[in-house]
Amino acid sequence: MRISTTQYFGMNVQTMDDQQATLAQLYQQLSSGVSLATPSDNPVGAAQAVQLSMQGTTLSQYSSNQNTALSSLQAEDSSLSSISSVLTSINTQIVHAGDGSLNDANRSAIATELQALRNQLMGLANGTDASGNYLYGGYQASTPPFSVGTSGAVQYSGDNGVQYVQVTSSRSIAVADTGKAVFLSSSQPGSSSVAAGALSNAGTGAIGGVTVNNSTDPTNNHQFTINFTSGTTFTVTDVATNTTSAPQTYTAGQPIVLGGGGQSVTISGAPSGGDSFSVTPAGQASDVFANLDSVIAALQTPATGATGQANLTNALGTALTQLQNTLNNVTTIQTSVGGREQEIEALQTVTQSNSLQTQSNLADLTQTNLTKVISQYTMTQYSLQAAQQGFSMIQKLSLFDYIGN
Predict the structure, then answer these.
(1) What pLDDT score was predicted for residue 194?
(2) If you placed Cys at 161, which of 111, 139, 315, 405 could pair as Cys (CB 3.0 to 4.6 Å)?
(3) C-beta pairs of 348-355 under 8 Å, 24+ apart in sequence
(4) Could you tell me which residue ranges the Flagellin N-terminal domain spans (predicted)?
């Protein structure tokens, strides 16, 4: 194949141009620290870089969500600890109120203490997080969830909405619990049915706690009333089914079987005809504010004679059972909150590791490897210099250089 002088010169010039372009590209990488300035530099790498960049952005958002969720849960955890402390103080006061040596004035003072603790509990129920959002308002996070109505009773104006935060591509975590769940509900496991005596009772009957004989009996979730037709006879009514038993003979301290036999209760003292008692499932008597109002009213009522003492005993026993159910409910929710906190902390570790790996992979694709590029730059520079020197020598040669010889 015959190569003309023009072709030869053109090939050499093109080679040197290419080397100079390569040097310019390598110099740009060295000066900017970026090895992938345009997609044309590395089309495959550019596509991978786009994917890694999107993945990094997503992981960054999940990390931000995790921080937000953890902050909210930590605020609720702290609030629930304070609520438990107040409820424990209330329990101590109610137990103290049962001291037989106290008089009406002493019990009235305890009622005043309970009123202050009730107000403190309501303040916690209207607590906010670091952003000023109400912890227990559900979706109504901008308005106080609890308020005092015209009757003096506490009302819940929040909703049942549970706020979730997306913390990974496949996991959303509840970052709050509603006021209804915390203050107006009762966790079934560990809670007890609530026994109570009517405030209008004229006898000296005092009802004890509920004994569970069969925890699987479906009637345990029914409400029952025990109505004394005389001082010696009573009937048991299942409110859920509206069925009443045949009259039964009353013996003080003897268990009274409820429903299908899953529960029983004892009554001591001497009830009068017309007196009534009730057994209510924990979930139906779980408004902590209403329960506090009831025991405060009972302590403010003079305990006159044996009947007054019996009614006070019933009120205090009822209040203690209700309060224990509330404490159990708060503890259950706080345990759940703690579990969610631990899960987020574990996810934070995984997300941070994935984010660092993504950043490393993206850097490998887009950032200049100084050792490698400097080596390439030096080699290309030497090659260009050699080509330039060789071409300079060759272009001086001609046929006339040989004629004289």
Answers:
(1) 95
(2) 139
(3) 348/63, 348/66, 348/67, 348/70, 351/59, 351/62, 351/63, 351/66, 351/168, 352/63, 354/59, 355/56, 355/59, 355/60, 355/63
(4) 10-140
For the cut 60, the answer to whether the pLDDT of residue 12 exceeds it is no
- Residue 356 binned pLDDT confidence (cut-offs 50, 70, 90): confident
Q: For residue 392, give both structure tokens.
A: 């300079």
Q: How far apart are the C-alpha atoms of 381 and 400, rounded to whole Å?
A: 33
Q: Indicate the burial class of 315 (C-beta count within 10 angstroms; 0-12, 13-18, 19 or more).
A: buried
Q: Which of 25, 30, 55 is nearest to 40 (CA)?
A: 25
Question: Distance between terminal CA atoms of the chain?
Answer: 28
Q: With pLDDT > 70 as the criterion, what percentage of the chain qualifies?
A: 76
CA proximity to 293, closest of 311, 315, 313: 315
Question: pLDDT tens-digit profile of 205-216?
Answer: 999 999 999 989
Which comes out higher in pLDDT, residue 226 or 14? 226
CB 270 within 8 A of CB 206: no
Average pLDDT estimate for 329-335: 94
Q: What is the DSSP string of 159-213?
A: -S---EEEEETTEEEE----HHHHHS---STT---EEEE-TT--S--EEEEEEES
| Residue 346 · residue 8 · CB < 8 Å | no
Q: How far apart are CA 230 and CA 271, in angstroms?
A: 8
CB-based contacts of 292, cutoff 8 Å, min separation 6: 90, 114, 117, 118, 121, 319
Average pLDDT over residues 27-54: 57
pLDDT on residue 377: 52
Band (57; pLDDT cuts 50, 70, 90): confident
Q: Tokens 């769940």 map to which residue?
A: 181
Amino acid present at 17: D
Nearest to 373 by CA among 35, 17, 46: 35
If you average pLDDT over each of 224-238, 281-295, 382-396, which comes out highest? Answer: 224-238
| DSSP helix/strand/coil, 236 | strand
Encoding tokens for residue 19? 């080397």
Task: Kindly tell me if the per-residue pLDDT of 346 is higher than 80.
Answer: yes
The helix or strand, by DSSP H or E, that contains position 249, with its residue range, turns out to be: strand 248-249
Q: Give the list of residues 6+ apart from residue 165 with CB closer than 8 angstroms, or none.
A: 65, 68, 69, 72, 172, 173, 175
